[in-house]
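Section 5.1 Outputs to date
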Amino acid sequence: MSGIYIHIPFCKQACHYCDFHFSTSMKKKDEMVLALAKEIEMRKSEFQNQQVETIYFGGGTPSILEISDLKLLIDTVYSNYKVVDNPEITVEANPDDLSKERIIELSNNKINRLSIGIQSFFEEDLKLMNRAHNSEEAKECLEFATQYFDNISVDLIYGIPEMSNEKWLQNIETALSFNIPHISSYALTVEPKTALHTFIQKGIIPQPDDEVAQEHFQILVDKLSENDFIHYELSNFGKENYFSMNNSSYWLGKKYIGIGPSAHSYDGEKRGWNVSNNGLYLKSISENKLPSESEILSKTDRYNEYVMTGLRTIWGISLDRIETEFGKTYLDYLNQQAAKYIEDHLLFVDENILRTTKKGKFLSDGIASDLFLLNLE
């Protein structure tokens, strides 16, 4: 089983914290959609013996496209690949694109999951982040979306400067009041070359505080667990049967093809990535060339990747798999590195699976990097 990720590289405006690849000019939109369809077709040989179980439109802002554009891309996947009977087809959307009419149009197609970038229900936070929607639109789109879609995820951001614990809890409670079955939540991070980075350097906005972010994270974990959400990955919480199949496939090491500028692909042995430039991408596709580079992952790269994804998820790191797939040297190294974290109650072993404790979850990326092995090959 495998997935197809389609990167839509357009946004109405740039959010202050975002460092993803996108353009705010829609001039080449039609040309881009045709190029994406062509890339989907050009790469069908990569999945000859695979069935596609997820199609995911990410970005950028996929909801900026016409329904006919999304339909063309979905139909192109169907006509070139073997698709399972009921695949998960997700469209990332912004509240300002989700009028009632738009939601009905989306629901009348094969799309069966929406991932809505709410980020906050408070006006001042949305302004600070330069989001294109307002608080009213955030609530209104959920009101409509829940009438037409059963499978909805919302994104929320914590650790925003000057956001109190009470205000953060209110954000979570507002999302829960719509009976949303999946929540993805991330700490506000300051990426170089973003507007947020510049504002912090100039002293216009205070630096996000790690301790505040950690408090917000614990509030999130506790509140969602009280409401029957399963914390299945560091930033993702789903009710039973509502985990994101697309995201889970990344963490479980399944194969996926990334279509579009800056999209990444993985086939179990090598990782590929497309050029992060719309013009170069379009030129390359028009010349029938794939605009990508790739690298074969060494055994150590694959070990490090498994450690990173394993620790972030409820599936953990199987010590048996480490031994059979990577060998005893890797297992001994992992046990040795993990010992101090087990002693500090940040990691634990259960049925030969290494996992983070509740206390260790927030720190899982830092712990994982300490369990990494330098490339010995």
